[in-house]
Specification:
Length: 300
């Protein structure tokens, strides 16, 4: 017990020093400075390369769809539009990264998108690499360009705010596995809120309907309910470090995420109104206001 308290006190003392703090890009949130950044990034790139290469194996059940596939084209168009609207970089070539490209990948602002034919709806950014993967099943689940844009903008937000680097840096704190898992739960949930809010900003700047972010969360929640048992089985079999943390622990309650987004919608619509390229989207705000007026009251 004394040892645990001592470790916690030491970690707290180190993190309270001003030189050990930095600002999260764009949001300005204060966090513990990411230590050994270059080393962590190198490992993340190597892990991403290995994952992508595994999809090229003949025995892999998940394959990378070709660049000329309609879903690859649609996904690329959406990501390019989001990146351009917020000056976040550009979408790069679709080849698998090589060892010699590691340094360039880390230093420039080039992103990559791979559409996979995996059986489950999923989208993620391969930690710390600006590489986004999304399954064809996710396209089929959402079936709406604005909702797909919301999903991809959320993943872009995770990468822009360097959530993966932050999580991996925290692993260097010498705390017990159980305590760190509990601590990670709160970090994961905060990251989701941050990615929701920043993703909403990115998609609205790109002239997508901000209300699609709420519809996307509802759709994914319905999917989680129907696939919960299967997803939990897959996570258990994956051998992840924190596989004991369930998705409902790493992600805030879906109702809370929606309430948080609803508070941000006026600012998102203001972004639409003040962006000349988005003049054709003014009806989104009117549609949302009508929906709010016509919604049943809480007391009903």
């Amino acid at each position: 017990m004394i040892t645990t308290i001592g470790i916690i006190y030491t970690a707290y003392s180190e993190t309270t020093k001003p030189e050990n703090w930095e600002e999260v890009p764009i949001t300005g949130r204060k966090r513990r400075k990411v230590a050994r950044r270059k080393e962590i990034q190198g490992k993340l790139v190597q892990s991403a390369r290995e994952e992508l290469l595994s999809y090229t194996e003949p025995t892999s059940r998940t394959k990378i769809l070709p660049p000329n596939h309609p879903l690859s084209k649609l996904g690329s168009d959406i990501v390019s539009r989001i990146l351009s609207a917020s000056d976040l970089g550009r979408l790069g070539p679709r080849h698998i990264i090589k060892d010699s490209e590691d340094e360039n990948l880390l230093e420039d602002r080039e992103w990559r998108l791979y559409v996979l034919d995996g059986p489950l709806p999923n989208a993620c950014v391969l930690s710390g690499t600006r590489i986004i993967t999304i399954t064809a099943s996710m396209f089929n689940l959402l079936r709406n360009t604005d909702m797909i844009a919301s999903c991809l903008a959320h993943e872009i937000a995770h990468e822009v705010t360097e959530h993966a680097l932050e999580k991996n840096s925290l692993l260097q704190i010498n705390l017990s596995r159980g305590f760190l898992a509990w601590f990670y739960r709160d970090i994961f949930q905060w990251h989701e809120y941050e990615a929701d809010s920043l993703g909403l900003l990115f998609m609205s700047r790109a002239c997508y309907n901000p209300t699609a972010a709420i519809a996307t969360i509802k759709r994914l929640h319905d999917m989680d309910l129907s696939l919960k048992e299967l997803i939990e089985t897959r996570e258990h079999q994956s051998g992840r470090l924190f596989k004991n943390i369930r998705k409902e622990d790493t992600h805030p309650p879906w109702e809370a995420r929606i309430k948080a987004l609803e508070k941000l919608l006026p600012a998102a619509f203001h972004s639409l109104e003040t962006t000349p390229a988005c003049s054709h989207t003014k009806q989104y705000w009117e549609m949302w206001k009508r929906a709010i007026r016509n919604a049943p009251s809480q007391s009903a």
